[in-house]
Amino acid sequence: MNNNAPIGFMDSGVGGLTVVREALKQLPNETLYYLGDSARCPYGPRPAEQVLEYTWEMTRFLMRHQVKMLVIACNTATAVALPEIKRSLPIPVLGVISPGTRAALKSTRNNQVGVIGTEITVTSGAYSTALQQKSPQTTVLEQACPKFVPIVESKQYESPIARKIVRDTLKPLKDTAIDTLVLGCTHYPLLRPLIQEEMGSGVTLIDSGAEAISEVSMLLDYYELSAKPAEQLPDHRFFTTGSKNIFETITKDWLGLDKLNVTKIDL
Amino acid sequence: MNNNAPIGFMDSGVGGLTVVREALKQLPNETLYYLGDSARCPYGPRPAEQVLEYTWEMTRFLMRHQVKMLVIACNTATAVALPEIKRSLPIPVLGVISPGTRAALKSTRNNQVGVIGTEITVTSGAYSTALQQKSPQTTVLEQACPKFVPIVESKQYESPIARKIVRDTLKPLKDTAIDTLVLGCTHYPLLRPLIQEEMGSGVTLIDSGAEAISEVSMLLDYYELSAKPAEQLPDHRFFTTGSKNIFETITKDWLGLDKLNVTKIDL
């Protein structure tokens, strides 16, 4: 295995960029390849079999680019596809649900944890199962937020309409005892200021994607796969199945990069 | 693999108990088996070949007890034996140096990191190599502290003599620019209050053993090896090659447990 091979990240759209942002910070030597399937986003309301199929298509694309490790930077795809893909590939594969779960249990002081995610992620019960298996005394309140991903993908995450949707959607969680809220979808950190404002400063928000990067870092060490420091900066690449323009605007805004190597592809 | 099998921890003596303490907190469902080779402690001044041999003896002992994961809770043994043992065993094996390295890089703001450890750990350069490979701009100052382990093993870690030894040993690090100091030996957290007092509050101390438990937790998830919550509390076991009495006193003091299942063994 080539230590200087890229790490592959994939998501239903631009949400996984919040994971890439953390990777740029924590793993400056690593080359990152990112694939966002914006053309078919959102995955959340789709049947599980279809999400599994789409996730396999993204996986095969990144495997053709010789990635050394694969990060499913999407909670929906993690909930549906992680076990099967991890079992099938010869490289380390990781998702975002376990890291989010561990961070939530570390953060909560009253064992009352909220989780927000897409319809599939919530219906799958992936978070509540994981949380209660590790800590049976924990109460988990889950809330699907079907409108959040479309707002982010259309780059309206700072608009007044976003504020209203966040307020309406989070109402059921607002007057509960939760002291920790897992952002169980990698798109949601783009709405973080609005979510924090709505939930109040007493609730700690957990960014499952950012937590996943600590796990990437650990597995790079564990498998002795870390990139060697090189003379030049790593040559990151971004692929989208959707609009190259919208993807570039969001990526530049969110990652603070001015030079981007973006390719529009079909899966 | 049986998820309810114990996790094995081993150390040259009682130092690894500082790792077990963190495991009791973060992983309450897990059964822990601990082996401390106090009869042959300290390992630090011994030739590397001998440390490798002793570490293999401890490994074989714990493997006979069907552990599902092995933690080399000793920096000296990690520096010398981790790669070979990890390659040879069919279960996950991890040490304390990588986690300490990652935590130090996360903590430092000025890229000036100190490392204290035994003679072998310092001579091996394990920490400075790992730190500089991840972050070439980091300056690493290392200091061997050969008198620290004997003080802890003889339960003098709160005595006036301990204070004097800590002060004299750390003198070369005291007036440097380091803002982070890795306790690169699992015995040292027992001297933590004295070390912190000597270095001042501007220096963040990194407990490599405590950091290792986050890695244990991740690997348990990654390999789907976490214990299922059980009706009864886990039945921890402790083994020492040295004095059962001294071991019990330090263990009760350090772990805050009043019931302990300790067995004196020969390797």
TrEMBL record, chains A, B:
<dbReference type="InterPro" id="IPR001920">
    <property type="entry name" value="Asp/Glu_race"/>
</dbReference>
<feature type="binding site">
    <location>
        <begin position="11"/>
        <end position="12"/>
    </location>
    <ligand>
        <name>substrate</name>
    </ligand>
</feature>
<dbReference type="GO" id="GO:0009252">
    <property type="term" value="P:peptidoglycan biosynthetic process"/>
</dbReference>
<dbReference type="Pfam" id="PF01177">
    <property type="entry name" value="Asp_Glu_race"/>
</dbReference>
<dbReference type="GO" id="GO:0008881">
    <property type="term" value="F:glutamate racemase activity"/>
</dbReference>
<keyword id="KW-0413">Isomerase</keyword>
<dbReference type="InterPro" id="IPR033134">
    <property type="entry name" value="Asp/Glu_racemase_AS_2"/>
</dbReference>
<dbReference type="InterPro" id="IPR015942">
    <property type="entry name" value="Asp/Glu/hydantoin_racemase"/>
</dbReference>
<feature type="binding site">
    <location>
        <begin position="186"/>
        <end position="187"/>
    </location>
    <ligand>
        <name>substrate</name>
    </ligand>
</feature>
<feature type="active site" description="Proton donor/acceptor">
    <location>
        <position position="185"/>
    </location>
</feature>
<keyword id="KW-0961">Cell wall biogenesis/degradation</keyword>
<comment type="similarity">
    <text>Belongs to the aspartate/glutamate racemases family.</text>
</comment>
<protein>
    <recommendedName>
        <fullName>Glutamate racemase</fullName>
        <ecNumber>5.1.1.3</ecNumber>
    </recommendedName>
</protein>
<comment type="pathway">
    <text>Cell wall biogenesis; peptidoglycan biosynthesis.</text>
</comment>
<dbReference type="InterPro" id="IPR018187">
    <property type="entry name" value="Asp/Glu_racemase_AS_1"/>
</dbReference>
<keyword id="KW-0573">Peptidoglycan synthesis</keyword>
<feature type="binding site">
    <location>
        <begin position="75"/>
        <end position="76"/>
    </location>
    <ligand>
        <name>substrate</name>
    </ligand>
</feature>
<comment type="function">
    <text>Provides the (R)-glutamate required for cell wall biosynthesis.</text>
</comment>
<dbReference type="GO" id="GO:0071555">
    <property type="term" value="P:cell wall organization"/>
</dbReference>
<dbReference type="InterPro" id="IPR004391">
    <property type="entry name" value="Glu_race"/>
</dbReference>
<feature type="binding site">
    <location>
        <begin position="43"/>
        <end position="44"/>
    </location>
    <ligand>
        <name>substrate</name>
    </ligand>
</feature>
<keyword id="KW-0133">Cell shape</keyword>
<dbReference type="GO" id="GO:0008360">
    <property type="term" value="P:regulation of cell shape"/>
</dbReference>
<feature type="active site" description="Proton donor/acceptor">
    <location>
        <position position="74"/>
    </location>
</feature>
<dbReference type="GO" id="GO:0042802">
    <property type="term" value="F:identical protein binding"/>
</dbReference>
